Amino acid sequence: MADTTLSIHKILCPTDFSDSATGAFAESVRLARWFGARVTVLHVMPFAVPAEGDVGYVPIPITSDEAVRKAKLSEIQRFVDATEHTGVPIETMCWEGLPTQQIRSAVRATGADLVVMGTHGRSGFKRLALGSVTETVLRDPPAPVLTVHRDVARRRGLFRRMICATDVSERTARTIAVAMALADEGAKSLTVLNVIEEGRESSPGDLERAALAALEKLIPDEARSSYRIEEHVAFGQANREILRVAAEEEADLIVMGAHRHGALGDLFGSTVRSVVRDAACPVLLVPTGHAWPMTGVVTRENAEAVGPSV
């Protein structure tokens, strides 16, 4: 038995059958094994498909043909069976409509605690993944969203080295709490990072001391006993500094809040988009004020049962 302050019971994994979707499903299985959760794999047959060139999407109505739906369900099952998932309850769903709307509906219908999505879609990163489905979901996430690259590094355990990028306001306390709860699951280190954009009137030294003091107030003393946790203040462009610190720390998870204003600037419009696109590790986006269950007990044989991701 292992105590945890974070409960994940239901994971939603949308798929377009791309390589990145395969990586996202593998990560969903890892998390499900760790937390004792079930995974719902959702494929949405869209009303629109990407067109050639830069014209974006061309509406193409799809008729509700039962034979087409059965064929698509078989394709979903082949997608699931291609990744080892012994012992993890898997449900498959095939819906028709606008992908972003149906993903939101599926979160409500399944009661998903977490959405796991790939960041490189079948038709290219900018056009399909962030350009449409994942980007729209991230603008107003219906639940915490974990984005996964198709080439996510293999690892055992859950997340070992983590970065939590945050401002110094009280509203970010929940994001930090989620990061600490994940770190409690066997992490070696958690770096809570605040980026101060250049051009402030105060001296860098004063700004850094004030930011460090504010971060310290947001981190309980008891959180420092089981793993290395430190506050770090950087100066410069937020997305670049987050990626730089994550690379230096060899982080395998970046945690960010979904609010759009504060010390990190317009988080979605600039920082989140860039970090999700360029990070070498998964990125967890936590909606501000989201009531993610933070208590419970998880049963698992040991950390090795999670196994490596693909």
What does this molecule look like?
This protein has 310 residues and is of the alpha/beta class. It has 2 domains: 2-153 and 299-306, HUPs (Rossmann fold), CATH 3.40.50; 161-297, 3-Layer(aba) Sandwich (Rossmann fold), CATH 3.40.50.620. It has 8 helices and 14 strands. It has a 10-stranded mixed sheet with strand order 6-3-2-7-8-13-12-9-10-11, sandwiched between helices. Helix 3 (99-110) packs across helix 4 (125-139) and helix 7 packs parallel to helix 8. The two termini are 27 Å apart.
Q: How would you sum up this structure in a few lines?
A:
With 310 residues, the chain is of the alpha/beta class. The chain contains eight helices and 14 strands. The chain has two domains: 2-153 and 299-306, Rossmann fold, CATH 3.40.50; 161-297, 3-Layer(aba) Sandwich (Rossmann fold).
Strand order of the largest sheet: 6-3-2-7-8-13-12-9-10-11
Give the full name of the CATH homologous superfamily of the largest domain.
Answer: HUPs
Q: What is the overall shape?
A: elongated
Q: Percent helix among the residues?
A: 25-40%
Question: Per CATH, what is the topology of the largest domain?
Answer: Rossmann fold
Write the layout of secondary structure elements.
Layout (H helix, E strand, L loop, with lengths): L1 E2 L6 E5 L4 H17 L2 E8 L2 E3 L6 E3 L6 H16 L8 E7 L2 H12 L3 E5 L6 H15 L5 E4 L12 E5 L7 H11 L5 E8 L7 H15 L9 E8 L2 H12 L3 E5 L9 H12 L4 E4 L10 E2 L12
Parallel strand pairs: 2-3, 2-7, 3-6, 7-8, 9-10, 9-12, 10-11, 12-13
Antiparallel strand pairs: 1-14, 4-5, 8-13
Helix pairs in contact: 3-4, 7-8
